[in-house]
Amino acid sequence: MSDPAPPEGVQEAGEGEKPKLKPCCACPETKKVRDACIIEKGEENCGDLIEAHKECMRSLGFNV
């Protein structure tokens, strides 16, 4: 019997590596509130949420 495939957007990680996500799938919690703020208030009024999302992305290894 084989192992189930990883969820879409997640690649298998080698030993000691973090799973590799696509940028669109990473940090859904911060992305959702950031996007809602930008739509409702405009990008210029959401700097703190934008930075929080960038920090989350960086913590996963993305260079943003």
What tags apply to this protein structure?
copper, 64 residues, chaperone, single chain, copper ion binding, metal-binding, mainly alpha, two-stranded antiparallel ribbon, Helix Hairpins, mitochondrion
* CATH-defined topology of one domain: Helix Hairpins
**Main β-sheet: number of strands, strand sense, barrel status?**
2 strands, antiparallel
Beta strands, count:
2
Class based on secondary structure composition and strand pairing? mainly alpha
CATH architecture term of one domain = Orthogonal Bundle
Can you tell me the residue ranges where pLDDT is under 50 for at least 5 consecutive residues?
5-16
Textual characterization of the structure:
It is a single chain. The protein is mainly α and 64 residues long. 42% of the residues lie in helices and 6% in strands. Strands 1-2 form a two-stranded antiparallel ribbon. A hairpin with an 8-residue loop joins strand 1 and strand 2. Helix 1 runs antiparallel to helix 2. The longest helix has 14 residues.
Question: What's the short version?
Answer:
Helices cover 42% and strands 6% of the residues. It is mostly helical and 64 residues long.
Write the SSE topology.
Layout lengths: L9 E2 L8 E2 L6 H14 L5 H13 L5
Antiparallel strand pairs: 1-2
Helix pairs in contact: 1-2
InterPro entries: Cys_alpha_HP_mot_SF, Cyt_c_oxidase_Cu-chaperone
Subcellular location: Cytoplasm; Mitochondrion intermembrane space
GO cellular component, one term: mitochondrial intermembrane space
